[in-house]
């Protein structure tokens, strides 16, 4: 029986951290060798971090990446390593180095360059045009990169038809809610349709607005999961693939012969590259495999919550901060933000501040204090009523007899923003702003006020999901970590007497449904109205989304959670006369 032991190192790279990334990769190679692996693979562009964006326009960045690759090559004695890096030829390429026993044997260039959603790879890379397969003793395997495997007729098909028994796909596939299940279905389909084993290794961790969920997987030739990496954690998985079973599966499917004949004209060039005529003698090192194949059975709330924790932790730490400060209002958004921050960073690294005015209710102060006590965070009360009154006195000669309105409401929010930024400057803590996607979509937020901060973790979390996440926190803890009244009270900014969000906004269930259709699915006003929504409400929401682009452009970055996030994902002009 011919078996090949595949190891996948699901690592958390940081863009530009060549020392740290190289150390992680070499450590993974050593671990693979200790596990008796024939082949070890690490994710797409793991050497540089993903996405490196315009750092790719700096020749010195490319050179540093190539020097780091030299270090990795020298660490590969007795094993084959597949490593994502940036190759430089007449142009630059998103590439996979195929390294064998201390020698760089070949380089694969990514064929399909994504240029949609959060991806801009045509801006930087030249596409590859070949799909080589590699001979290792009696094994043939192919290597491709991320997007390449999403196409039924792409490199995977050509490599399998050329004889590859295993396809190794290295990837940096960013998370959005539910993507893991879609990705797994696709990979299983590629494996079964091509009668080929598939080993898929994905990046994990946060990088700016993106979170990578890991969930690396190994499939057999029938599309069954053999091994699976953990969700949102670094992991190392190994599995033995029986290439003889792949061969037998193909013998029983004569359609494959016809497909090879029909595909001859459109197959990519699949040069066969010999890595080694005999196999490494790793059998003595092989013991029982420990990789898990359990299917993660997470609710949407738990999955999203874990993404928020990882994205927040990595954004704060990778940008050189150790602690955060949060304005705790007694409302549900700031409560959720504080809970995520504590799980991401630890209670000792979270400071919460309550800043009441004449409009702050007794219940808000009570519940904010209770939440801070439940979480064990540092807690301060900084009343701003006197400061607010001084602002009003200062502006009275200019404001005159114009009735109180939004300007006076926003003064309160901006005083609070100033206090939080002062604490940030004084103690070196990052300010976390607390606005959610529903509010940011329609501009129900104050520029330079509650929008002030270094990171907006809930920026892509709709209000209805905020409630689901808050209830999840309490269920998980079997206690009211977030006081019940915070969750059940009618939401209010508390910037004027008896204010409620519903004075200005449609009910959040309706608002979020309209926003999903307009922001995420690009439906027209007519399409949305045809779904049964009130015409006046739809047109108001659409106009608010359109005219508040200038606010969102100035907002702090936040974690991509939905399929269409503001920021690097959904890109609209600030100045536009088109609505709907």
The figure for the number of domains is 2
What's the number of extended β-strand segments? 19
Overall outline = elongated
Please give the order of strands in the largest beta sheet. 13-12-9-8-7-6-15
Largest sheet: 7 strands, mixed
Which architecture name of the largest domain does CATH use? 4-Layer Sandwich
Which structural category do the helix and sheet elements fall into?
alpha/beta
CATH class of the largest domain: Alpha Beta
CATH topology of the largest domain: Nitrilase/N-carbamoyl-D-aminoacid amidohydrolase
Straight-line N-to-C gap: 62 Å
Please tell me how large the radius of gyration is: 27 Å
User: For this structure, what is the CATH homologous superfamily of the largest domain?
Assistant: Carbon-nitrogen hydrolase
Average pLDDT confidence is 91
* Beta-strand residue percentage: 15-25%
Q: Oligomeric status of the shown chains?
A: single chain
Helicity range? 25-40%
Number of helices: 18
Low-confidence stretches: none
Task: Describe what you observe in this structure.
The chain has 580 residues and is an alpha/beta fold. It has two domains: 3-278, Nitrilase/N-carbamoyl-D-aminoacid amidohydrolase, CATH 3.60.110.10; 300-501, Rossmann fold, CATH 3.40.50. Helices cover 38% and strands 18% of the residues. The protein has 18 helices and 19 strands. The strands form four sheets. The protein has a seven-stranded mixed sheet with strand order 13-12-9-8-7-6-15, covered by helices on one side. The chain has a six-stranded mixed sheet with strand order 5-4-3-2-1-14.
């Amino acid at each position: 029986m011919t078996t090949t032991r595949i190891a996948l190192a699901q690592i958390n790279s940081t863009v530009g951290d060549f020392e740290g990334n190289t150390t992680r990769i070499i450590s993974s190679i050593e671990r693979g060798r200790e596990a008796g692996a024939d082949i070890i693979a690490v994710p797409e562009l793991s050497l540089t971090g993903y996405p490196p964006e315009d750092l790719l326009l700096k020749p010195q960045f490319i050179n540093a990446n190539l020097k780091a690759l030299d270090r990795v090559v020298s660490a590969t004695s007795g094993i084959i390593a597949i490593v994502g890096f940036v190759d430089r030829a007449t142009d630059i390429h998103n590439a996979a180095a195929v390294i064998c026993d201390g020698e760089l044997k070949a380089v694969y260039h990514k064929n399909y360059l994504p240029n949609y959603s959060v991806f801009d790879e045509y801006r930087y890379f030249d596409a590859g045009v070949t799909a080589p397969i590699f001979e290792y003793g009696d094994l043939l395997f192919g290597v491709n990169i991320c997007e390449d495997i999403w196409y039924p007729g792409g490199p995977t098909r050509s490599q399998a038809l050329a004889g590859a028994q295993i396809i190794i796909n290295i990837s940096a596939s960013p998370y959005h809610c539910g993507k893991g299940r879609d990705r797994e279905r696709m990979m299983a389909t590629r494996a079964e349709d091509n009668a080929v084993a598939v080993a898929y290794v994905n990046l994990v961790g946060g990088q700016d607005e993106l979170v990578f969920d890991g969930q690396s997987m190994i499939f057999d030739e029938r599309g069954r999961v053999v091994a699976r990496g953990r969700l949102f954690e670094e992991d190392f998985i190994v599995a033995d693939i029986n290439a003889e079973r792949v061969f037998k599966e193909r013998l029983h499917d004569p359609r494959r012969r016809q497909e090879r004949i029909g595909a001859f004209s459109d197959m990519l060039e699949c040069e066969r590259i010999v890595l080694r005529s005999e196999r490494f003698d790793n059998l003595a090192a092989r013991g029982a495999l420990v990789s898990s194949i359990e299917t993660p059975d997470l609710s949407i709330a738990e999955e999203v919550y874990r993404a928020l924790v990882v994205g927040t932790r990595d954004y704060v730490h990778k940008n050189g901060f150790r602690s955060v400060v949060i304005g705790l209002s007694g409302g549900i958004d700031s409560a959720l933000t504080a809970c995520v921050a504590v799980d991401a960073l630890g209670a000792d690294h979270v400071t919460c501040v309550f800043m009441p005015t004449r409009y702050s209710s007794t219940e808000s102060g009570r519940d904010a204090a209770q939440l801070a006590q439940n979480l064990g965070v540092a807690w301060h009360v900084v009343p701003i009523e006197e400061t607010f009154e001084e602002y009003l006195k200062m502006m009275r000669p200019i404001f005159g007899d114009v009735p109180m309105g939004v300007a006076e409401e926003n003064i309160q929010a901006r005083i609070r923003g100033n206090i939080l930024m002062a604490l940030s400057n004084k103690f070196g803590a990052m300010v976390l702003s607390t606005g959610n996607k529903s509010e940011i979509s329609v501009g129900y937020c104050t520029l330079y006020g509650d929008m002030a901060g270094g990171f907006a973790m809930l920026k892509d979390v709709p209000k209805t999901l905020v409630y689901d996440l808050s209830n999840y926190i309490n269920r998980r803890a079997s206690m009211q970590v977030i006081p019940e009244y915070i969750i059940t009270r009618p939401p209010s900014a508390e910037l004027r007497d008896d204010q409620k969000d519903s004075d200005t906004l449609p009910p959040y269930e309706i608002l979020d449904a309209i926003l999903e259709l307009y922001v995420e699915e690009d439906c027209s006003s007519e399409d949305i109205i045809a779904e049964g929504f009130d015409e006046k409400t739809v047109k108001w929401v659409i106009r608010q989304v359109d005219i508040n682009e200038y606010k969102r452009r100035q907002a702090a970055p936040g974690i991509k959670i939905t399929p269409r996030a503001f920021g690097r994902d959904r890109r609209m002009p600030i100045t536009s006369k088109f609505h709907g």
